[in-house]
Structure formats: structure tokens, C-alpha cells
Design brief:
By secondary structure, the protein is α+β, with helices and mostly antiparallel strands. It contains eight helices and six strands. Helices cover about 45% and strands about 20% of the residues. It is globular.
């Protein structure tokens, strides 16, 4: 039994090392806007350096407890959904791996879409850090894209929200 347990410890440790290396941190600079495509929407964050990403995420837990240890744990779908329903969110810092949740990361993709030039990376990161903490959340009016667009370009807009508005206005016409 002991050799099996020892083998299992090394196997698990090697798997953790593999997961950590999935994202090459040398690709990201302080102030980069990171995008993670999801099923329906894209999730956004600002790279702060040292494997840290600031991102706005709906979460009910900060509204019901001040336990920082519990709040800092990985969000469950229930916590996220309750945050959306109650319009409670936080701008928090997670590792690149926790932020991406296994998905591909696009770097500064919005620079090609936004007509506004990007601010200096250090200024972007300072803005992101200054806004850390609890915030009100709105899927349409203040979500993770609004947050990163304000930090990087100085204007809190969401192209995803705009696309949803266009789609609903087109389908509303006969």
C-alpha cells in the first residue's frame, strides 16, 4: 500500500505542475487585457503581474460573510448565479489558471476593436487595483467587460452588451 501512495503523491504533483505550465506567464505584461471565451460570453480580466489577474465576477458570498478565506476560494456555479440574481459582485484577484479555468486566453484582442487607444500598462493595472472589492453588478450595465474597458481605455463599455441589444432590437421588429 505504501509504494502505491508514494507513487500517487508523485503523480498528483506532476499533474499540478503540468496544469501550472499550461499558461506561459511570459506572454503577459502588467496591464494587459485578458479575454477568456466561454460558451455564451467572454470573460475579461486585467493582468497585474506575478501570476495575478483582477476581474469582476458576480458572487453572493461577499454579501453574506466577511470570511476572506471562504470568499477567496474558487467560485461555484451556485455562488455565481446567486450573484447575478442579487446583482452582487466583487472585483477580485486570482491566479491566471483560476481566472482562465482551463480555457484559451486572448491578450489585448480589444486593442483591434476599440477606437480608443489603450492607456499605459502601469496606469491600466493601477486602475484595476484601485477598484478591487465589492461592487454592484449588472449583466447589461456593469459587468467584467465594462470594468476592463474602463481600466484599459478609460470608458466603461461592453461590446457584448451592445451585440445583445442589437440582437434583441432586431428580433423585436416584425
Amino acid at each position: 500500500m505504501f509504494p502505491y501512495q508514494l507513487f500517487n503523491i508523485f503523480f498528483v504533483a506532476s499533474q499540478i505542475k503540468k496544469e501550472d505550465s499550461k499558461y506561459d506567464l511570459n506572454l503577459y505584461k502588467r496591464g494587459d487585457l485578458l479575454e477568456v471565451p466561454r460558451t455564451l460570453f467572454t470573460h475579461f480580466g486585467i493582468y497585474l503581474g506575478d501570476n495575478r489577474v483582477a476581474h469582476l465576477i458576480p458572487d453572493i458570498l461577499p454579501a453574506v460573510t466577511k470570511n476572506k478565506s471562504a470568499i477567496s476560494k474558487m467560485l461555484t456555479n451556485n455562488r455565481l448565479l446567486l450573484g447575478v440574481i442579487t446583482k452582487v459582485a466583487s472585483i477580485r484577484v486570482d491566479s491566471v489558471m483560476d481566472f482562465a479555468y482551463g480555457s484559451e486566453i486572448l491578450v489585448n484582442h480589444m486593442d483591434h476593436i476599440c477606437s480608443q487607444p489603450a492607456l499605459d500598462g502601469e496606469e491600466v493595472a493601477r486602475r484595476a487595483e484601485k477598484l478591487l472589492g465589492s461592487v454592484n453588478y449588472s449583466l447589461l450595465w456593469y459587468n467584467c467587460e465594462h470594468y476592463v474597458m474602463y481600466c484599459r481605455y478609460g470608458m466603461a463599455i461592453s461590446y457584448q452588451t451592445y451585440q445583445v441589444e442589437l440582437l434583441t432590437s432586431c428580433t423585436g421588429r416584425s
